[in-house]
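Minutes, project check-in

Agenda point 3 was the complex the collaborators sent over. CS summarized: two entities, 701 residues total, and the question is how they sit relative to each other. Sequences were read into the notes so everyone works from the same version.
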Amino acid sequence: MSKIINFGISETLKALFAQLKETPSQHGYKYHAKDVEQLSQYIVCRNYGSVCYELSFLCWAVVNHPGYSSSPLLSFFWLEDNLQPKRFRQAFNQPIQTASDNIIMGKEHLQLQIGDIDFAISPTRVSLLALLLELITNIEPAQLANIEKRLLGANNQAIKQMSSELQKLIYAYLKEHIPEASTQERFRAISGWLKQHNLTAARLTDQDVLNFWLSPPAQPSYIKYSTVLDDLLDAITAIEVVENTLNADYALSLGNDSEQGEISTEWVQQTLFEQAENNIDLGWLCRSPKFLTLAQFQPMKSLLSHGKLARQLPLSFLRLSIFGGWQSVLIQAKRKSSQELADKLQQNPNRQYLDYIAELNDSESQCKQVQQIIAHIFYSLNIPLFIGIMLKQIPTDLQQTLKIWMREQIANTAESERNPFVHIQQWLSQHPKAQFWLTEAEFLFKNNNKDGFKNIPSVPELDIYQDGSEALNHCQELVARYLLVITKLNHENTQLAEIYRSDLCIFSNRFKQIYGAPDA
Amino acid sequence: MPDHQYHMQEQLFTAKTLYRELHQFAPEKNSTGKPVLLNDLVQLAEGNPQIDGQQVMQQINQSLPLRRQYMQLLQKLAFANSPVQAAASSVAEISSRKSAEFELLFKRDKQFSGQVYVILKIPHSIEKHHNQGVHVNCCSDKIISSIHFPPIVDGKTQLLMEESDQKFINMFDAEFAIYLS
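CS then shared the predicted structure for the full assembly.
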């Protein structure tokens, strides 16, 4: 009964991706967490065909670079670390020409001309492609030498062949490490259950989620509340997305593929990761620079993962945090001893719904504060981007004044030809409230000793701070909207405590059923 | 519902579920199940202090493919090397190793028996050796060991070791090749 359902991905593959994020360079991490996440998207969507193709061309360019007498790939990607766009451009700054081929660094792309085929590689893609090569090398170390041998002086036919071999290699590896049968079984069970209860994304309620967990379908075995919530919401979202897609006559663009029953993996990846309103993984906010601590990020994680459904199902996420957390404790205890399990089963969870709300409030204000700190960084470097952040955080009347002023600036071309930063400073000097906000930002910066905030970063490093500011703003808005729903729910300040007491009874009974009731 | 629609839904669900599982993993620190990437080997060979050298070296010594990969790397990266000394008898202890670029020798401590001073001389050392010190990698078919010497001053550096230390024994074993990095 207490068997935990079998997850699809092997521990080896999980550990491999974790290590790809962790592996160091001389300064910090070798690969950006965002690249690792993107690579994993290609992998889980099985959409790695075109990246393998791109990588094969990139390897061809490196292997045929006259600057490397031996082990070109090792030298280029590992020893010289030519992953950043700037370094990559530098490495190819001299045009390379042979009888039939050309390699030229253009303004935007590295242009390859191989026989009668042209191919362009963007320097911003190189870090991702290098990561794929690291993955391939881990799957089969001998590939590096093989690629070098096969691509030296090779024509475009050989490059295509190389690409298809790399695809086969990854395919065979994934076959071993991602058995899809278990996720297919889960989808079958959930979609069947939803149909049976006539539920759609719009109609799903907190009570439905609880009902599912209390009496799940017979197969597969659904025990963990967190898995129930994730699976149910992932399934219902998938169903909704496909229906919307088909209703929007988007099916036409799926064209021939759909006739043959084949699904474009590109479509899967775009739908899930590029068009989705919810950013499913912002874990990089806790890395370097460290925008948030894990404790500040963790409470928001599940909300971020399910976006608008979290607002539709506010109680389900309170339950996830408190009772899902309790269940994790029980699972841990079960591994240790039956006595430990019995003890934990007797104790109530050490947090209640209001504690989770307090954590979210704290996360929200952290998100706001760190944005203010980022504004200080931009301001100290004389970069007007700080205004965007300031605009969101200053009092409404001042916001209006600033907006009107900015509109005037844009309209008045002659004025805006002057240094915009000097101009802004003039405006600031007339508005003490805005000045105060900036002074506060400076104070917060000085008190933030986390990695990436000890000193003002240099201008080329600012991209990640801008990304961070946007992501934090997204988190902040999402949490604020969720908290608003909770406030409405708890309008007399007593409802949540009541619901908690009733839920405690429900979860406690169910856990006793699952993990064995101690003899009272 | 048409099959195709169902498969599209199933595929979206599968991809998202797998993505979630892939990133939910919290690796245990210092666990031996941690994979070793080529980049980890490169960083180890280059003496990056962010690599847990002891643990990675242990994994290298437990896996033949990793050992091969690492040996190739050392050969590529080495500042100098001293090959296996085929003619020497494996029983006889050698008291020094010499190449055109370096000399490695040891002296016994007169006061404390069992302790040895290992002296490494590099007459034409590179800048890295003045800042970061020198790694002496000892490789046989079965095992690789690595010792870090302090930065070179006036063409030499030294290390106090136990005579019974396996790393010391490997350095002066004719069956081990030596790579300096």
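Noted in discussion: The first helix of chain B runs from residue 3 to 24.
Follow-up: revisit at the next meeting once the mutant set is ready.
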